[in-house]
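Bench notes, afternoon.
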Amino acid sequence: MSYTSRFTVVASLLGAALLSTSAGLAHAGTNDPLRGDQWSLDQVRAEQAWATSTGTGAVVAVVDTGVDLSHPDLKGNLVAGATFTGCGKAGGPCGNGDFRGPDGQNNADEHGTHVAGIVAAVANNGTGVAGVAPNAKIMPVKVLEDGSGTFEDIAAGIRWSVDHGADVINMSLGGLAGTQVLTLTGLESSVTEAIAYANAHGTSVIVAAGNSATAICNTPAWEPGAICVASTDRNELKSWFSELPNKPDLKAVAAPGGAGLVSCKDDIVSTVPVGTGSASCGQKDYDYYAGTSMATPHVAGVAALLFAQGRTLANVEDALLDTARQPGTGLTGVYSPAYGWGIADAAAAVKYAGAAAGKGRKGGTEKR
C-alpha cells in the first residue's frame, strides 16, 4: 500500500518508566480508584458539568483501532460497532469493532480502547476510571490495524457511524505533517467528503491535531468541518509534541493530552484491553498514554454532554468554541495560535444557551 493512501494513529507517547510521586487529586467526586490520577477531568471541568448532563442518550463513534468489548469499565456503555479493516475484496463491514480485528489477534491495537475510556468509561462503579461523559454510549468502529489504515476504510467508518446513529465521531488519527497537500490538490477526497457527509447529517467530527509539533493541524483535522484538537499538559501549557491548532475555518480547541516525558502520572490514564497495561506505568487493564490522541476524546466527551441536552450540531460547536478558555487569562471568545479558542470547558459549555429537553439527537443500537 503506498504512503499516500494510508493514515496512521496519531502516535501515543507512553510515559517513561519512572512513576510520579505527586499526589492524586483530593477532590475527586467518584469512587473510581484511579480518579485521583485523572487530572485531565479537572482541567476540562467535567465533574462540574455532570449535575447538568452526563451524556445520557448521546453516542460517540470511536473511529480507531477498535475497542475491547469485554472491558469491565466500558462494556456497560457500548453500542453495536463495525470493522472496516482487513475485510478483503468484499469490503466492510466485516466485524463488530473489536480491537482484535478479523484475524482475531491484537496487533498492537490497544489505542482505541484507551480513547474510548476517556470519552465514556463508566463512573462510580468502583472500577478504574471515569469518562468525561460517563453515561454516553461508545460505538466502536475499527478502521486501523497495527496503527495503520486507508483513507477509504476511514471514510467508510465515518459514513457507517453517521448512518447508525453517532452524534459525535472521535478520530484520534491522522496523516503525517504535509499530507494536507493530498486533499488540497484533490488527490484524495474520500475522508473530506465523509466529514462533510457527517456534518450534513448533524454529526460532529472531532480530530487530533497531530504529534509532530508543526504550526498547523494535520489532515483530517485540517479538513473543513472537523474540529481540530491540540494537547495541553497538566499545567495547561501546550504539550511539546502537539501541532498548533490552526486551520482555515478556525474550528480548533485544546484539551489535556499529557506531557509525554518522564512521569507516567503526568499523562492520561484510561482503559486498555484487559491484561495489556504496561509493567512500567499501568495496571493490568489501565495505562497512561500521551498525545493529541488523548486530548481529542476529552473534547468528544464534552460534545456528548452537549448532544445529550438535545442541541443541534451548530449549537454544540458554538458551545464548545465559545466557552473554551485561554490558559492563564481564562478569557473566552479569543483565538490564539497556541490553543485555538482555548481549553474545552465542560461546565461552561453545558450552561451555554440552546439546550433542549431531549436526551440526544439519535438513538444508537445497543450492543448484542
